[in-house]
Amino acid sequence: MTTAAPTQTTSKDYAQLTALLREASTIGSIGGLLGWDQETYMPSGGARARAEQASVLARIHHDRLTDPRVGELLAACESDTALNAGGSETAANLREIRRDYDQATKVPGDLVAELARAGSEAQDIWKQARAKSDFAMFAPALTTMLELSRRKAECLGIPEGGELYDALLDQYEPDTKAAEIEAVFNPLRERLSAFIADVTENGVPPRDDFMSRNIPVGQQHTFGQAVLEALGFDFTAGRLDVTTHPFCSGMAPGDTRLTTRYAEDNFADALTSTMHEGGHGLYEQGLPKSGPHAGTPLAGSVSLGIHESQSRLWENFVGRSAPFWKWALPLANKHFGSTLSDVSLDQMTAAMNTCTPSLIRVESDEPTYNLHVMIRFGLERALVRGDLSIKDLPGAWNEQYKNLLGVDVPDDRRGCLQDVHWSFGLIGYFPTYSLGNLYAAQLWETINEQIPDLDDQMARGEFAQLLSWLRTNIHQHGRRYTAGELCERATGKPLSADPLMRHLERRVKPAYGM
Ligand code: ZN
């Protein structure tokens, strides 16, 4: 432990520096609010004006981040030995401020503004194209976003021994290279494929007909809110709304917005989406946003892989477990009337742990999920390299779904138009989803060692000790440590795929009578 080192060292320069960053962060949070509004309540007629607003605001934000005064103060702080005492929070914050400043100053303001404008417009076009299942309608906007993203990557620079894609990946998972992701994904793909083949060929699929029973949206919403409250989500500092593509925006201290979606014949999709975004929200609410580091990098999340580990932990490791359902099934019956009253705990748990290759990533089960991610990683990497052209994307997508998941993609809505990410220019983002699953599995094993009666607690609807563990080991640190360091500090080991495979064996095989 290095927490005994000084944590509150400060100086006049440091105070001025953090004040400037706090202001920039506040401007960024207004952008978060605009984005949330665009996804939830903005009428479609507002799309053009919103793109303009997003673009102007992105430029102002960028101007603040790259203000020469920030560079001067940062340099002064870096030469102040008291501020850089080993292991202090201030030293860690300066390291991260330097990282952000260097990245921001590499990208011209015009490009930042253009990416924000084009991304906002492309997102709207994607929404219409997806509804009509018309890839040709989206292709020009996607071509623009890919081109702008490549230009941004060139500004950021290719890391030594790396490729252009790494510059984009680095924004979401710092200091990680595509080749390293590939080295993790290749053996994992083999293990998952073998696991899925074993289960689907040798197991007996559990009964799941009751999962499509009709449950009114209002009942699903009050149930989801009750679950979130029990997990510890603070509704005085957050909200839950409805969108096409669920997300979480920790836009400001004391203001974390979650969204989910409802289908009357698929209550589990809404519940898992709500718990997933709730996991992101709990992380956001646990970050040190209102203390001395407010508005500085230290108050932010360390990487998207770690962020996703928090959402997947609550969604899957908690939300698909028998102890959780021991508590949640009676609660569901309270909200859903008699709709599920004939379903036993064993039946519900088994139905939550199926293994069926399917078309839609966000609806896929745990064993098949990472294969969806691997397909996107391979395709976007090929797009950035120039090995794949936009017009060939649907064909390549469909071919890989056939090869890896064995499913025929009937239309682009259920194929390459299903995810919002590329329309925003979020290229290099997908692999962090699978890293999140690996981190979550490894954290879960350690948590269960350190809280031996966690199952009993969950069966009583008690999640406070679990949340407290996450607060202590993950949330409160913000960006103080790298993702890899945080994992090692929390679990004592570097990241490995073994815990995830052990988890799938324990969870899925019993559901198939194996
Ligand atoms: Zn997520």
Write a brief structural summary:
With 514 residues, this protein is mainly α.
Structure description:
The chain has 514 residues and is mostly helical. The chain folds into two domains: 6-132; 178-512, Orthogonal Bundle (Neurolysin, domain 3), CATH 1.10.1370.30. The protein contains 21 helices and three strands. It has helices spanning 12-40, 47-65, 68-78, 89-106, 109-132, 135-156, 164-172, 178-202, 217-231, 267-286, 304-318, 322-336, 345-351, 366-385, 393-405, 421-424, 431-450, 454-459, 464-473, 483-491, 498-511; strands spanning 238-242, 248-252, 255-260. Strands 1-3-2 form a three-stranded mixed β-sheet, sandwiched between helices. Strand 2 and strand 3 (255-260) form a beta hairpin. Helix 1 (12-40) runs antiparallel to helix 2 and helix 14 runs antiparallel to helix 15. The longest helix has 29 residues, at 12-40. The protein is globular, with a radius of gyration of 23 Å. The two termini are 43 Å apart. The model is unreliable at 1-7 (pLDDT under 50). Bound molecules: zinc ion. Zinc ion binds next to helix 10 and helix 11.
Walk me through the topology.
Elements: H1 12-40, H2 47-65, H3 68-78, H4 89-106, H5 109-132, H6 135-156, H7 164-172, H8 178-202, H9 217-231, E1 238-242, E2 248-252, E3 255-260, H10 267-286, H11 304-318, H12 322-336, H13 345-351, H14 366-385, H15 393-405, H16 421-424, H17 431-450, H18 454-459, H19 464-473, H20 483-491, H21 498-511
Helix pairs in contact: 1-2, 1-3, 2-5, 3-4, 5-6, 6-7, 8-14, 8-21, 9-10, 9-12, 10-11, 11-17, 12-13, 14-15, 14-17, 17-21
The structure holds zinc ion (ZN).
